[in-house]
Amino acid sequence: MAVDKRSARLGVLATVSLILIGLLGARLWFLQGVESEVYQAKVTASKTAVVYTAPERGRIFDAKGRVLADNKRILTVTVDWAVVKKLKNRKELFERLSGPLQTPVDDLMRRYDPCYPEKPKVCKVAQLYDRLLPLPLKEDVDEDTVAFIKERSEDYPGVDVVVQYKRVYLYAPLASHVVGYMGSITKENLDTYLAQGYKRNERVGQFGVELSLERELHGRWGKRVYEVDASGSIVRELADQRVEPVAGFDVQLSIDLDYQQYAEQALETELRSRRDLPFEPNGDHAPRNPLDPLTKFKSRVFYKTLPDGTKEDYPEYVNHKAPAGAVVMLDNRNGQVVAMASYPTFDNRWMEAGITGTKYKQLFPSTNPDGTKIDPDQSILVNRAVQGNYNLGSTIKPFVAWSAMHAGLIKPYDIYDDKGTYTLDPAYTAPETCQNNGGSYKCVFKNAVCGNGAPCRYGPVDVESALAVSSDSFFYRLGELFFWASKGLPEGSPNLLKVNLERFGFGTKTGIQLPYEWSGRIPDDASKKALVDRGVLAKGEVGRLLVGDEVQVAIGQGLMAATPLQIAVAYSTLANDGFRQQATVVKAIYAPLTPDLSSGVADLARGEIVKSYDKPVILDQLEDEGTIQPIINGLTRVMTKGGGVDSDFYHRATGETLFGDFHIPLAGKTGTAQGAANLPWNDSSAFGAFGLGDEDPYTVFSYLEKSGYGAKAAGPVTKCMFVAISDPTVMAPVLISDTLDLSSTLPAPSNPLVNAGCLARIADGQKG
């Protein structure tokens, strides 16, 4: 008997229908209830257009309110991306715009497509412009061109003109290494900036304070939201959704342009002067410069050994290269940097001049014409004051002396008999292990050569006298004492000399608000091994610290290295009775839009300070068990008189010929850092000094690369700064810069001292 299955089929169909209707209802409920706001936003967005408004970047002032970095209001011609989406429309519009904008069509095409005219499957060139903003076609367009385009809007569909800001450096090239410059967001940093609310086509800080204080200077974008019709035309603005842009904070630097200009001028003038002074094998320089008279020394012969074992004399005269240097001037009351010069310098206006890549490479080459890397001595976009990797020569000695006294290795008035050489203690290093006996160590270390051609003999000296005459042997001994004292500590203990030098800030960043600061290096087993592993040291060097390494560190040679800012902070610590302060290049942060007092000068009195850096930040306080005053006494004698404790061994102090009759009470130290192959014409010059009175609370440190003895190159530059401190009238007035010469091939024009009298020496003195 057949069974009627129709009712069963209808039941199944009814069930399925009910399920489908239920699912549809649930989906409708979900869309209209749970996600209604999301979809409503999408509908609304399709009816609106958002125009973002750029914030005005915060300005940068010097200590007196002079505007180092300003903003110029400019007009930029833009086009809607949608209008030029089709290639045919794009070409047609750009051909019409090429004439008025005085820009080749291909350049406009590359703004839309950075790979144009090539057609790769994947363009590997990053898109510079944000698709959420109109495409900029040309910046800084004049009013006449804007009027021409506006009057013919029907010929230029989608084309608009927006107000933007261009960075202006009024006093360039002064302080360019400190202020820095701006540039496009790089591919490596793009995601980070976008996550912080930046737009793809923004210009951001790339160097100096412009980079390190980017977040404070930038401000916040605003926006305007418009209702649009189906054709994309604006119907009205949705005023309730408007967000006004917020300008960036203004930044006041501690840099005083008067001292900054003088430091840059003195540094450049002295470096150029040293290039005209060849080194003589008799131990001094030829009298080509009246400020550097000749002193006769007995002849010394310098030669090199050729691969076949024969010896070849070096030329009788070798000119100093004197390629670069730095000057740092600190206010001891608060750690503020008053001046920071780095040479060679540059004009940061080049980065805002719209120059071609070819022009940029001409101004700031990274390679030579043959493709080899450029000599690091010629690097321009490097702030040597915070990035310089320098041996310090004898300028390190005050800090080694304090370290030895603090560690209990010597007492302040212990006497050491300096006989001109120092031999490692045979109780620790047997003579048969020395290099001159076929072993692996150098055991005999010599003082610098005196006028008789032999190592200087200073006789009985204590800490004070050893600093006054710069006795190397005294400090060689301290280096050895530190080495064996460290060996006697429990396994895993830190290097004893390193621990003490760190108290002055060596081996760590100062924390100044500038990018790319180098932390320096105080050698220990780990750091030496790292250098050996990188192949930096000579072949055969072992990957641990040897006694000879520590001996060299004690006189500022070998593996020890620091920046000019670090050692300026260290000298300032002595000037402050052992209080080490945080170095700062920022004096205050001001609320946005500080009014102007006059052209190029902000009215700081009417500005609102958000944060002040006038109060010093103390990072460390050195224990003073009678250890600081002997050092200051010795550094004072460096500037006034020398002499050992025995009159039979009297020697002039290394700074005496510069400061012997100086009217400001100062303490300081010379330093000569040995250069490549220990050849004198490769020696670099260092000089640090600080005022002893409350009326001159400043520290100055100068470093001149490959420029000779400390008292003869860096010393005069340091002296010039104290001349300016005591008599500001010697400094030329600071003026707003002339228009940048775009035809120039120089990164910055020469800017020598108007009167170089401050560089003069009283008479010729010792090396130091």
Using brief descriptors, characterize the structure shown.
single chain; 768 residues; alpha+beta; 7-stranded mixed sheet; 29% helix; 18% strand; disordered C terminus
SSE arrangement:
Blueprint lengths: L5 H29 L1 H11 L1 E6 L6 E2 L5 E13 L7 H15 L3 H8 L22 E4 L4 H9 L7 E10 L7 H4 L1 E4 L5 H6 L7 E5 H5 L1 H5 L3 E7 L5 E4 L12 E4 L3 H19 L2 E2 L23 E3 L5 E3 L4 E2 L5 E7 L4 E8 L13 H7 L20 H4 L9 H10 L9 E3 L2 E3 L20 E3 L12 E3 L1 H7 L2 H16 L8 H6 L23 H9 L13 H7 L10 H12 L3 E3 L4 E5 L5 E3 L2 E2 L6 E4 L5 E4 L6 H13 L15 H4 L6 E8 L10 E8 L6 E7 L9 H13 L42
Q: Please, could you describe this protein's structure?
A:
- The chain is of the alpha+beta class and 768 residues long.
- The strands form ten sheets. Strands 2, 3, 4, 5, 10, 22 and 25 form a seven-stranded mixed sheet that branches. A five-stranded antiparallel sheet has the order 16-15-29-28-27, sandwiched between helices.
- It starts with 5 loop residues before the first helix and ends in a 42-residue tail after the last helix.
Separate helix tally:
22
Which descriptor suits the 3D outline?
elongated
Largest β-sheet summary: 7 strands, mixed
Oligomer: single chain
Helix content class:
25-40%
